Amino acid sequence: MDYLSITGPARLNGEITISGAKNAALPLITATLLSDEPCSIENVPDVADIHTLLKLFGKLGSKFIFEDHLLTIDNEAIDNTVATYDIVKTMRASILVLGPLLARFGRCEVSLPGGCAIGQRPIDLHLKALEQMGARIEIKNGYVVATAPDGLQGARIIFDKITVTGSENIIMAASLAKGRSELINVAKEPEVVQLCEVLAESGVDIEGIGTDELIIHGTDRVPLKLKPFSIIPDRIEAGTYLCAAAITYGTVTLNGVRADHLDAVTAKLHEAGCRIENSETSMTIYPAARLKAFEISTTEYPGFPTDMQAQFMALATQAEGVSIIEERLFENRFMHVSELQRLGASIHLKGHTATLNGPIQLLGADVMATDLRASSALVLAGLAASGVTNVHRIYHLDRGYEALHEKLLELGANIKRLKE
């Protein structure tokens, strides 16, 4: 098993290119299940979660080639509609095959995802919506067994709470349903918006793209013809490198980004004292004279993203004053607190709120990643700490960050990827 060894403190400078968004690529790849013709997707990130999903597609009977961030996929020969536990247990996003498989084939079996380190993420909203569309749902031996032999029917669906994967699953299902679907309280994340845009380009009539209310006129189980498209830049990867620059008082330019997807993140970096300049496809962050404390509260897009909470907690350790971080979306997303404390961070945790006193001199130590974003927070802290920080269990990082080690090297970090 690999680990990262970081010698700090560092000051990052230079420029890097941001990869395609994992959280956009996963639903868009599953959307190809709605088609029986080859489709080409550009700017696909080369990360572990993509390979996991493609492994699942291979078991379904899909044929694909994935080279140099270009994925060509052909789902004409799919002869299996069972998503098995051995794959779904490693990546909860595998549940995204449920909607398109059911819509196109009228049946599927998808393993229940099981537990998640950062908290409960039940799929009851997915299942409730599909039942409203006429599907019969049973839970057997740990699998969701879904059938709709006469096809799905358009319906008026109100999501009880905002759910990104739930929204994506039902948007895909509604695309091949009979008649009109009205979806209320839909997630508005850029990744959901791109899914709608790609489906609309492929002939699905979708009204309200970018809002929390969508009207979808289904194409009645006629497989779609997906046009070639390119994955949007990864806003969470971009935000992570902005924090890496900020915590090391460096000047870093990010190429291939969408600044409009990062408004909530850059607003907090401005609050912390950093200066950011945007061009059409790049962003440059300039260091604060002295980092200042800030307050954040995670919420759904366009609010502050929960996927950036851990990185900003690392940043808060170097900010002058008292920073307050409230996690409102996931109950267990503070597992990185104890690991940051191993490096010397002063963090008081009460319920869903963390209070940090800074700045504090972090000292290198061995730390262990517990989830994807917690891993990146430990890397950022290691860049600011004095001495050697070894970050273990970095398979979490490999799930969502492409070439993290290499990109940090480009920016001047003293970082090595080593074997345990």
What's the quick description here?
31% of the residues lie in helices and 26% in strands. The strands form six sheets. It has a four-stranded mixed beta sheet, covered by helices on one side. Strands 2-15-17-16 form a four-stranded mixed beta sheet, with helices on one face.
Structure description:
This protein is an alpha/beta fold and 420 residues long. Helix content is 31%, strand content 26%. It is built from 14 helices and 24 strands. The strands form 6 sheets. Strands 22-23-1-24 form a 4-stranded mixed β-sheet, covered by helices on one side. Strands 2-15-17-16 form a 4-stranded mixed β-sheet, with helices on one face. Strands 4-5-3-14 form a 4-stranded mixed β-sheet, covered by helices on one side. Strand 8 and strand 9 form a beta hairpin. Helix 5 packs parallel to helix 6, helix 6 runs parallel beside helix 7 and helix 8 runs parallel beside helix 12. It is elongated. About 2% of the residues have low confidence.
Label this structure with key terms.
single chain, alpha/beta, four-stranded mixed β-sheet, 14 helices, 24 strands
Helix-strand blueprint:
Blueprint: E1 2-8, E2 13-17, H1 22-31, E3 39-42, H2 48-60, E4 63-67, E5 70-74, E6 82-83, H3 85-88, H4 98-105, E7 107-111, H5 124-132, E8 136-140, E9 143-147, E10 156-158, H6 164-175, E11 180-184, H7 190-201, E12 205-207, E13 213-217, E14 229-230, H8 235-247, E15 251-255, H9 263-271, E16 275-278, E17 282-286, E18 295-297, H10 309-316, E19 321-326, H11 336-342, E20 346-350, E21 353-358, E22 366-368, H12 372-384, E23 387-392, H13 395-400, H14 404-410, E24 414-419
Parallel strand pairs: 2-15, 3-14, 6-7, 10-11, 18-19, 22-23
Antiparallel strand pairs: 1-23, 1-24, 3-5, 4-5, 7-9, 8-9, 11-13, 12-13, 15-17, 16-17, 19-21, 20-21
